Each structure stands twice: as C-alpha cells, then as structure tokens.
C-alpha cells in the first residue's frame, strides 16, 4: 500500500507542472508572426506554452478573439478598427509601422487611368472594410472627390485580380504580397500608393480577458515579436527565404515586399493614437462606421506594454 501511495504521489507531482503551465493562444495568418518568429529563433526558452491557430484573414481571427477561442493575434488597422466599432472586446497592445508602397490602387499597364481623378465613375475591386478600401477612401479625399464617386466591387484578392486582368473592373486596390506579385509579373501599374495618406499601422491585439489574466505572457510575446521584427529589418533575406518556402511564391516577391516596407515595431504612443483616430474618423466620414458607434482611439489601444520594446534598445 505504501508503495502504491508513493507511485500515486509521484504521478501527481509529474502532472503538476503541466497543469500549472500557462498557455497563450495566438491567432496568425500564414507566413506572418509564427513564420517570422521561428525564422528569427526567438521562441526558445518560452516560460509558457504557445498555441498557434492559423486563419485565412483578419476577420475570422477577430471573430475567434471575440468568441474567446484565442487570446491574441496580428491584424491590420482597418479590420481592427471595424471590429472595435462593432463592439468586439479587443485592444491593440503592440504597434508596427511600415511604408505603404505595397498598399496601392492598381490598373492594367495599358489603362488610360493615370491619376486618382481619373477614377471617377470607375469600378474598383477590393475587400469591404480592408486596407485596400481604406486607401481608396483616403486617395479620393486627397483628390477632393466624395466616397461615392467610384463604384466599389467588393471581391477577395484572387477574384479581384481576375476581374482586373479580364477587364471586368477598371482598378484593383490591394496590399502585399498581391501588389509585389502582380508588379513583378508585369500585370499592373500603380496609380496611387498609401504613402502620405494612410498611416501604415498594424497591430498585435488581444481580447479583454487575456489583457487582464495573461498580461505577463502577452508582454513576453510582445518582446519576442519586437525582437523578431528588428531581426528582419536588419536583413530581410532570411525571412524572405522562409516565407517563400512556406507560401510557395518566388523569393523575389517577399524580398520586394519586405525590402521596401521596412516594418518596424513602435510603442503605442500619442502618434499612434492620433493616427488610429484619423482612421476611425475617415470611416465615419465615409459612412462606414456610424458616428454613434465610433470608438475613441485611446480606449482601444493599450499603451501599457512599451517596456516590451526594451529588447530593441
């Protein structure tokens, strides 16, 4: 009996660390945070379990955050803003900025469209509520045109590309890696990119529950992700090679994308809050977010993780 009790005690002792081990459940889009962090080698020695879930786009990732199926994930500023306006209990805890060469309104090389003004009454394919939608709205404002001066055709990127090349639409507003792939293939010409009219923000976001109960884990994850971003900024080649192998596109595509995007981690400071508010206000003016439901930027951005950037100093 004594021997049996010892064995039972040992079994429970062996189970205790596993039960005590915390888990951070992170949503990812293929080729993004997980591929970057693995390529950078920053996941060694994790003091918790990191459980990845892959999503095809930001919208289902944000739905999973809303449902509590994951704790955190990476998304662009546009889907994040719409989710917050829809009442999803999510906040950004880490921000990234990049140049906007790859966020662009594209036309066929032989198109007569040469400027944003030429887009008046034209058909533009993009995803509803995406950064592609955002850059069209911003470009129209810059040109002094109302949001309804173009005809939107809301299509996913693969369908939008086919619509452009077949002539079913006049322009396609999209993002990376679609822009680089189409440019390298000689299929498109850029009419207007996002530089100067969009802030180039993306975020690591978490739901309210994780921000309260897993804050230390999120801070560690943020520090490792920031370190990986710094590594890729120094030399985009290794990450481009890993990304190319994972996604199956030529290495020239991510090299063009990463080389010109210059992704960098930034603290959630007044400049980020100001730019996020600009995005919110743009969607309100365009009638995409009712003013009564528009969030305030400072409410949906958590500035308490700035110490995670210490790894970069």
UniProtKB/TrEMBL annotation:
Principal cellular location given in the protein's record: periplasm
Subcellular compartments: Periplasm
Keywords: Signal, Transport
SUPFAM superfamilies named among the record's database cross-references: Periplasmic binding protein-like II
Solute-binding protein family 3/N-terminal domain segment(s): 23-235
Domain of life: Bacteria
Protein's UniProt keywords contain Cell membrane: no
Summary of the function given for this chain in its UniProt record: Part of a binding-protein-dependent transport system for aliphatic sulfonates. Putative binding protein.
Family, similarity comment: Belongs to the bacterial solute-binding protein SsuA/TauA family.
Protein name per Swiss-Prot or TrEMBL: Putative aliphatic sulfonates-binding protein
Protein's organism: Methylorubrum salsuginis
């Amino acid at each position: 009996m004594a021997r049996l009790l010892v064995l039972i005690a040992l079994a429970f002792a062996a189970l205790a660390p596993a039960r005590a081990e915390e888990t951070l459940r992170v949503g990812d889009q293929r080729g993004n945070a997980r591929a970057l962090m693995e390529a950078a080698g920053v996941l060694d020695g994790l003091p918790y379990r990191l459980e990845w879930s892959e999503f095809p786009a930001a919208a289902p990732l944000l739905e999973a955050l809303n449902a509590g199926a994951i704790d955190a994930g990476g998304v662009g500023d546009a889907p994040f803003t719409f989710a917050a306006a829809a009442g999803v209990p999510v906040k950004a805890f880490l921000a990234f900025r990049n140049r906007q060469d790859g966020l662009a309104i594209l036309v066929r090389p032989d198109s007569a469209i040469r400027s944003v003004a030429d887009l008046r009454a034209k058909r533009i394919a993009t995803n509803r509520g995406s950064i592609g939608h955002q850059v069209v709205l911003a470009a129209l404002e810059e040109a002094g045109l109302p949001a309804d001066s173009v005809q939107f055709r809301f299509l996913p990127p693969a369908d939008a590309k086919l619509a452009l090349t077949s002539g079913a639409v006049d322009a396609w507003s999209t993002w990376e890696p679609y822009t680089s792939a189409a440019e390298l293939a000689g299929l498109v010409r850029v009419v207007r990119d996002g530089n100067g009219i969009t802030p180039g923000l993306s975020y690591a976001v978490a739901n309210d529950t994780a921000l309260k109960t897993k804050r230390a884990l999120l801070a560690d994850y943020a520090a490792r992700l920031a370190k990986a971003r710094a590594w890729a900024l120094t030399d985009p080649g290794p990450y481009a090679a890993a990304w190319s192998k994972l996604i199956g596109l030529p290495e020239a595509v991510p090299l063009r994308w990463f080389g010109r995007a210059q992704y960098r981690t930034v603290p959630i400071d007044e400049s980020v809050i100001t730019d996020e508010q600009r995005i919110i206000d743009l969607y309100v003016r365009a009638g995409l977010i009712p003013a009564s439901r528009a969030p305030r930027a400072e409410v949906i951005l958590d500035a308490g993780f700035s110490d995670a950037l210490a790894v970069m100093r």
